[in-house]
Specification:
The complex is a heterodimer of chains A (114) and B (115). Chain A is mainly β and 114 residues long. Chain A is built from no helices and eleven strands. Chain B has 115 residues and is mainly beta. In chain B, strand 10 and strand 11 (104-105) form a beta hairpin. The radius of gyration of chain B is 14 Å and the shape is globular. Classes of the chains: A mainly beta (114), B mainly beta (115).
């Protein structure tokens, strides 16, 4: 079975532009979460979606938005990109939310803002 | 709010030896879980071990075990018989039982295995 898949793997954007990152969860998983990992730091929680509804949001500005589709895949959108948005964006999936379920991560999307 | 502190930015161990990585946490939740994740140079986060806070027994997974001290809010990872493939960043993390706030990670410990 395929793991959590993310696209694109790498991308470069200019300040002020918009970016969309995509994530396909493991088959059968209905919960998807997004994390931002700046170089040298641990990942920071951005969003959690479950059954197409936002269930949790981290301390990120409104420039960050996300959605989950009926097939449980998800997109993360970031508007008005800043240099500080340069990071590895990780998607994670689990059967349902909660610590009782194993959370699997994708390999991430590297975003560089120039 | 939850916080996780890893006080060792880098640790080095000889191959086949044992190493312990430290982690302390703070949470107001009564229902929570603790994790150790490994992040090799490929950057994919790999679950090493999970501990349910309501369980007193320390979790073990082959060469990996934890020392969970709930009152002290301490959750250390012991790696026995260290192997070259264990070299990676190790992150300690916590998650509330409901999970809506996502995983809270520490800053990580870079583990070096000396051949």
């Amino acid at each position: 079975d395929a793991g959590v898949t993310q696209s694109p793997t790498h991308l470069i954007k200019t300040r002020g532009q918009q970016v969309t990152l995509r994530c396909s969860p493991i088959s059968g998983h209905k919960s998807v979460s997004w994390y931002q990992q700046v170089l040298g730091q641990g990942p920071q929680f951005i969003f959690q979606y479950y059954e197409k509804e936002e269930r949790g949001r981290g301390n990120f500005p409104d420039r960050f938005s996300a959605r989950q589709f009926p097939n449980y895949s998800s997109e993360l959108n970031v508007n008005a990109l800043l240099l500080g948005d340069s990071a590895l964006y990780l998607c994670a999936s689990s059967l349902v939310p909660g610590g009782g379920n194993t959370i699997y991560f994708g390999e991430g999307s590297w975003l560089t803002v120039v | 709010a939850q916080t996780v502190t890893q006080s060792q930015p880098e640790m080095s161990v000889q191959e086949a030896e044992t190493v312990t990585l430290s982690c302390t946490y703070d949470t107001s939740e009564s229902d929570y879980y603790l994790f150790w994740y490994k992040q090799p140079p490929s950057r994919q986060m790999i679950l090493v071990i999970r501990q349910e806070a309501y369980k007193q027994q320390n979790a073990t997974e082959n060469r990996f075990s934890v020392n969970f001290q709930k009152a002290a809010k301490s959750f250390s990872l012991k790696i026995s018989d260290s192997q070259l493939g264990d070299a990676a960043m190790y992150f300690c993390a916590t998650l509330s039982g409901g999970g809506a706030d996502g995983l809270t990670f520490g800053k990580g410990t870079h583990l070096i295995i000396q051949p």
